[in-house]
Amino acid sequence: MIGAGVPFGAEQRLLPEWIPLSFFFVSLACLPLGWILLFLQAENIASFQGGFGPVLAALHTFTIGVVLTTAFGASMQMLPVASGAAMNRPIGVILLLVLLLSGIGITLGGFAHYRPLIASWGAALLCLSALLYALMLVRLLIRSANLKLVRNHVLVGALCLLLAAALGAAMILNWAGLISFNMPNPRLVHAGLALYGFMGLIVFGFSRIMVPMLSVSDKTNDRLAIWGLLIALTSLLLWVGGFFKIAPIVALISALIHIYEMFTILKGRIRTRLGPEWTVIRFGWIMLPLSLLLVIGAQWTDNKANITELSILVAVLGWLVSFIIGILQRIVPFLLSMQIARQTGMPELPSKLAAEKLTRIIGPLHIAAVGVTGLAIIMDNSLLLQFGSLIGLVSGLSFLTFLIIAIKRKRLSLEKMKK
Amino acid sequence: MRLSQILHEEHQRTLTVLDELDGWRGKNKPDDIEQIKGLLTDLIDVAQSDITEHYAFEEEHLFPVLRMNGADFMANMLAGEHQMIRPIAQELSAMAQKAIETGFDDQSWQSFQELSFDFIGHETFHIQKEEMGLINAINSLFTPEQEAPLIELYKKGS
């Protein structure tokens, strides 16, 4: 079977349209915003050694603004559709949305303006949203009889999110002088748990549903995925335990297993022709092991500064954001099509809702932006970094336009079908 | 073999033919009808077995069970798509049959291409939804014993 889900009575699994679209809209608004912040902070990137300020705000615009928001929205909408579980009540998802968005805004503001107390409030809201999200996920997945493997990925990911959020909040409270927090390398542990623990495992799990479905393939390998998850878990435990030199090597094995399964799924697809979004998805897959190689390089060599920055760029923008850009280009028209079906009984073809011309430039521009900014970091060249950011900005704005066009086309299609 | 597996394999076969058809997208008409004759024959076969009979079986024997189990939306949506795809498949099948007999001219090739890609889009999206929903649902709705007579019925019909 292609995909692994049972949208049994799928209309009972569809949230009111505006809720998932709000998550995705915020995510896609944060994408150009992140590039603008990177552009403005280009001269400070090279000297960034961690700590609070606009550079941290720029980084978190991508991580919590784009990636976390998409993960929350997709989990709340796509998991019920794909797992056969009854969805969470919309009011709970709305509360999640409010907590997340206010948390993001206040935290980023606090970071950018060196306001620790404001950032503390934002962190508290983000922690609450993480807790609510984890509770809703557990509730949703426990009621699902299917997708046990995805369930394991997502549940371990949710645990990592809680730990990463708590650690992030502790660092902010320490900065604000509200608590005294002493832990060796908290930033490293926080980054590892957030990027490879939560976001990584969510991507691993979701990919096993979305990639076969979108590429029309049934070549998943459950056994391999179980090994991948166990190895990923081992690497996360090593990372949290402070074994920073060994953990990324173990994580690399898990990543390669995941990538192998993804390419196997794609190779086994029935339809030869793939849409332009697959270029950026495949690029993201390649960036995952590359990011881990860079983490290994950063941990095993003395030249840490640039490699560390490069590894963060490759992990966040190269891997996670690339994957999101590719997958959302398919998910958004699909969801809108199902919303049309909910109202008229007949779905519209997703391809008719997607702005094809934009899909041809969004991915390539994003890839170019990652390439140029990566080169700029290696060369320590802020002008080049600004140029790369501008390319990313055009890609981000194009994607935002893609979303707006899809919503507009959905409305037109709905009016036409109702007539 | 479970009923879900039988229907799944038919979907796979249909998708394989659609993929081959998609390979002609944007191409000039074949110089010799023999170049495409095998594909046209497969297309006619798909339109008969995987569309006409497959759809009729689902509508008659599976969708009512889905509706009884509260999945009206899914059953109605899939049935609605059947209604939309069926005439496209029939017209395409007739075009393919005519082409086998008399070949394509520029105009008939253009019409064939347009209709083909309409068919590919709708049928692929339809199969994606059936694979996500219906195929999995069958296994939870029927035991192997319950579905045995249905399989017999389906085999007799096709």
From TrEMBL, chain A:
<feature type="transmembrane region" description="Helical">
    <location>
        <begin position="118"/>
        <end position="142"/>
    </location>
</feature>
<feature type="transmembrane region" description="Helical">
    <location>
        <begin position="358"/>
        <end position="378"/>
    </location>
</feature>
<keyword id="KW-1133">Transmembrane helix</keyword>
<feature type="transmembrane region" description="Helical">
    <location>
        <begin position="312"/>
        <end position="337"/>
    </location>
</feature>
<feature type="transmembrane region" description="Helical">
    <location>
        <begin position="278"/>
        <end position="300"/>
    </location>
</feature>
<feature type="transmembrane region" description="Helical">
    <location>
        <begin position="188"/>
        <end position="211"/>
    </location>
</feature>
<keyword id="KW-0472">Membrane</keyword>
<keyword id="KW-0812">Transmembrane</keyword>
<feature type="transmembrane region" description="Helical">
    <location>
        <begin position="52"/>
        <end position="79"/>
    </location>
</feature>
<feature type="transmembrane region" description="Helical">
    <location>
        <begin position="91"/>
        <end position="112"/>
    </location>
</feature>
<feature type="transmembrane region" description="Helical">
    <location>
        <begin position="384"/>
        <end position="407"/>
    </location>
</feature>
<protein>
    <submittedName>
        <fullName>Uncharacterized protein</fullName>
    </submittedName>
</protein>
<feature type="transmembrane region" description="Helical">
    <location>
        <begin position="154"/>
        <end position="176"/>
    </location>
</feature>
<feature type="transmembrane region" description="Helical">
    <location>
        <begin position="21"/>
        <end position="40"/>
    </location>
</feature>
<feature type="transmembrane region" description="Helical">
    <location>
        <begin position="246"/>
        <end position="266"/>
    </location>
</feature>
UniProtKB/TrEMBL annotation, chain B:
<protein>
    <submittedName>
        <fullName>Hemerythrin</fullName>
    </submittedName>
</protein>
<dbReference type="Pfam" id="PF01814">
    <property type="entry name" value="Hemerythrin"/>
</dbReference>
<dbReference type="InterPro" id="IPR012312">
    <property type="entry name" value="Hemerythrin-like"/>
</dbReference>
<dbReference type="GO" id="GO:0005886">
    <property type="term" value="C:plasma membrane"/>
</dbReference>
<feature type="domain" description="Hemerythrin-like">
    <location>
        <begin position="4"/>
        <end position="136"/>
    </location>
</feature>
